[in-house]
Amino acid sequence: MTLKPPPDRLYGRMRGHKLRPRQEWLLAEFLPTFAWPDVAFGFTPRELWLEVGFGGGEHAEALAAQNPDIGLIAAEVFENGICSLLSRLAPDETVTALPPRNLRLFTADARPLLRSLDDAALGKLFLMFPDPWPKSRHAKRRFVHPELLAEAARALRPGGEWRIASDDPTYQEWTDEVLAEQTLFAIGSRTLTRPEGWPPTRYEAKAIAAGRQPIYWSLTRR
To answer: 171-198, pLDDT tens digit by residue?
Structure first.
């Protein structure tokens, strides 16, 4: 598979409907209290994890709650999705809200962030239901990409896990093809049922309700 390297350029929407005053407040006042890299973790995490494209944040929120000893960086650029997570973490702006001590949000392109990490910095990497970019001419925009696999492998420690989930047939076929032509990761599992310990997401529920079949991959860094 020969492709041009994916460019460091964001595609797609960064904002949907017009933000309400409450959402503007969340972005301006609450987000900076735990925005990465400006705000470091206040403790030494057992491991560093990264979620690329957290959507509405359900998955990242659950991971942080279930694993209090790890540090999770959750990346997302779509402001409405960011606000969805922020509104759950700060339900009342009249009360001082404290973000989870082990969760930090990164609101720019995750690819430069991934490259900025030290070798073997990550214990886990998560890519849950990414934008499929279904047209073949847009393949370079997909996060699962031969060029990015090498960067993901560099940032993950040996034995580290990369979890991928997609409900899009084009992206599923593409992911299988890309993984078949690489040697950096061992495919631990490929299943049609969400594995135990994988938090659900709202998007996943919508996909299943619409009749789309997700596939879940677990890769191990060799």
So the answer is: 999 999 999 999 999 999 999 999 999 9
Q: Is the dihedral of CA 4, 111, 74, 159 positive or negative?
A: positive
Chain length of the chain? 222
* pTM (two decimals): 0.91
* Catalytic residue, candidates 8, 109, 131, 168: 131
Q: How confident is the model at residue 140 (pLDDT cuts 50, 70, 90)?
A: confident
Residue 16 · residue 83 · CB < 8 Å: no
CA–CA distance, 108 with 195 (Å, rounded to integer)? 29
Tokens 């073997």 identify what position? 120
Q: Tokens standing for 61?
A: 């929120």
Task: State the Cα–Cα distance between residues 48 and 89, nearest whole angstrom.
Answer: 21
* Domains of the chain, CATH where assigned: 22-221 (3.40.50.150)
Q: Which residues is 156 bridged to in the sheet?
A: 122
3-state secondary structure of 4: coil
Does residue 136 register a pLDDT over 90?
no
pLDDT of the residue at 95: 62
**The CA-based dihedral angle spanning residues 219, 156, 47, 7, taken in that order and rounded to the nearest 10 degrees:** -100
Asked if omega into 37 is within 30° of 0 (cis), the reply is: yes
Is 131 annotated as catalytic? Answer: yes
pLDDT of residue 134: 83
